[in-house]
Amino acid sequence: YIGVPASEETPAGRAYWVEIETSLRGASAEDREIMKLLVLEAITGFASGDSLGDYVLELYVKSGSRPVQAENPKRLKEVSLNSAGGDSSWVTSDTVAVATLAGEFRCVKKQRTLESRHEIPTGNIKLIKKSRDDYAVWFSRSIPVLHMAKCVIERSRETDTVPRITGIPASGRKSSRTTAEIIAYGYDAGTILRLDSTR
What's the whole-model pTM score? Predict the structure, then answer.
């Protein structure tokens, strides 16, 4: 769940309260986590070299039934749009219709592939680790805030040795697929984490 329940003026400019709730399907309430951030409106101009920590003024976290904790937003300093493993750019496709649980949307599809290969010398052999991440994201301007209707991430990981060593089998290719899809949206978000006792 992502909600933007309020905004306010700050010395650094207009900012919005953003609430992000995550939990595992079927898990107990103790596995629920809520993050509440006060984010500068200037983040709409976020560039690849910027740090998320430069745009977040306040950060609060609540895990399960534990009390709300105020955290230093500078911990987000290392979060940027730069991804490790390559500088592959996004490829944009034509507008297409995408069906989701929240309805059908006219979307622009963006795709990106990141690949890496690392060789680790170990005695007389080399351990080779290969990875590949394929991203496909569908965006619609009719969806508020993130505009994301659907996202699919396909990952593969593989290790091997050179030369091949009897008794040390290669891992083989291991693949995973993660899909995220919008299930509902609206323009009437109410706060789910009150800060009266922490501010």
Answer: 0.71
Using the structure block, give the residue that is written with the tokens 């749009």. Answer: 81
Tally the C-alpha atoms within 13 A of residue 7's C-alpha that lie toward its C-beta: 7
3-state secondary structure string, 18-30? Answer: EEEEECCCCCCHH
pLDDT digits (tens, 9 = 90+) for 135-165: 999 999 999 888 999 999 999 998 887 777 6
Residue 52, Ramachandran bin (φ over 0: left; ψ between -120 and 50: alpha; else beta): alpha
